[in-house]
Amino acid sequence: MVLPLPSHFGHLRLASGSCRVRLPPRIQEFPAKFISALSRPFTFHVGVSWASKPADPKITRCHTPFPADSCIGRWRDTMLALREKNISRDAGEDFFYITQMHNASGVAFGVADGVGGWIDSGVDPSLFAQSLMYHAHRHSRDAWAGEPEIDPTQDQPERAGEDGREITPHQCLDLAYHSVLQDRLVEAGSSTACLVSLNAASGVLRAANLGDSGFLIIRSSSVIHKQPTQTHFFNCPLQLTKLPLSTNTNMHYIDLPDAAAEYETKLRDGDIVVAYTDGLSDNVFPADIVAICSLVARSVHAEGEQVQAMADAIVRYAQTCMRDRKRVSPFEREASREGMLFRGGKIDDVTVVTALVRETP
Fold first, then answer.
1. Contacts of 96 (CB under 8 A, 6+ apart)
2. Residues 200-226: pLDDT tens digits?
3. What is the mean pLDDT of residues 270-278?
4. Which residues are CB-contacts of 178 (< 8 A; sequence separation ≥ 6)?
């Protein structure tokens, strides 16, 4: 589905696959006066898919969602409504966001994985991840993907009305985290995070990643970049954390946005960006992700449908792998390197955002 902008401008395309996609109201109501006449040669087709892990009868899930009439509750439901027929109704302890940036300057998206260990303390792990993604979405949509542009076709009063500022994913992560700390509805929690922005004018990708969520870039059927994970030790990723006021901070790992790894590169026509939580990277090897994307590209011709089909196929394959105890998984290999015995896949929530880059000469 294409945003209501002139076709020669850089814009976000949210792929619908076989179902209708509803865009967030903020995107639908983007003021026409902010549409720039400047060149936007890059177009991004975006797809998203997610699946919550199956319920464990041995664990009582602490589920205290944001009220449906709260700001985050309404936004959460809007994000989940991007796919009316998704693999799973909710994203479990994961969450994500996708948004167009100020003045159609680019696209921003991200994923977060709430730390499930908070269940033992009576805390819903999904709240921290959802709040973090909500605030990252809020800060991204009102900011430029790159340096604010000056439109030579506008007179001085019109230029003065152009608000907004440039924001990097790292800055966005910092702002979002501090917003979560002030959110009274989030008592406590932790989350990994991966934030990405794509610049419609320059084709530059910028990213900030903290923990073991991440992203990779596929070019010509090869992975040209895979974001390294950040861990304190095996299966303990770096994580943004909010503790109850009475908690002893010496007993917890508390990582700050400053620890996030930054990455920047220029994308090319045909590149595919895949952002994911560790439900994917623990169960599926990068070569398999490339193979899935190549197979979908050959069988689905419409580019908007391609990226959505890629996201769906990747999530379904991750679900298959995590249930297979005979197949060697990336998590099993990492455990073996640490001298630990683990067989097969690792059951987890999985969230995937895919983006296909197109450049108009």
1. 48, 50, 79, 109, 110, 111, 112, 133, 351, 353
2. 999 999 999 999 999 999 999 999 999
3. 98
4. none
What SS3 class is residue 251? helix
- At residue 355, the 3 state secondary structure works out as strand
Retrieve residue 48's tokens: 């998203």
* Overall pTM surpassing 0.85 (yes/no): yes
Burial-class residue 85 by CB neighbours within 10 Å (0-12, 13-18, 19+): exposed
DSSP letters along 111-148, please?
A: EEEE-GGGGGGT--HHHHHHHHHHHHHHHHHTSBSSSP
Quick count: other Cβ atoms within 10 Å of Cβ 113?
32
Taking only Cα atoms into account, the Rg of the chain, rounded to an integer number of angstroms, comes to 20
Residue whose C-alpha is closest to residue 352's, from 313, 324, 320: 313
- Which helix (DSSP H) or strand (DSSP E) does residue 295 occupy? helix 286-299
8 A C-beta contact, residue 242 and residue 254: no
Specify which residues 263 forms β-bridges with. Answer: 207
How many C-beta atoms lie closer than 10 Å to residue 280's C-beta? Answer: 28
What burial class does residue 160 get, using C-beta atoms within 10 Å of its C-beta: 0-12 exposed, 13-18 middle, 19+ buried?
exposed
356: which strand partners?
A: 45, 272
Q: Measure the CA angle with vertex 156, ends 153 and 157; round to 5°.
A: 110
Integer Cα distance of 55 and 53 in angstroms: 6
pLDDT band at residue 133 using 50, 70 and 90 as cut-offs: very high
Q: Burial letters for 302-323: b for 16+ Cβ neighbours within 10 Å, e otherwise? A: eebbbbbbbbbbbbebbbebbe
Say how many C-beta atoms besides its own lie within 10 A of residue 106's C-beta: 30
Q: How far is CA 259 from the centre of its chain?
A: 18
145 conformational bin, left if phi > 0, alpha if psi -120 to 50, beta if neither? alpha
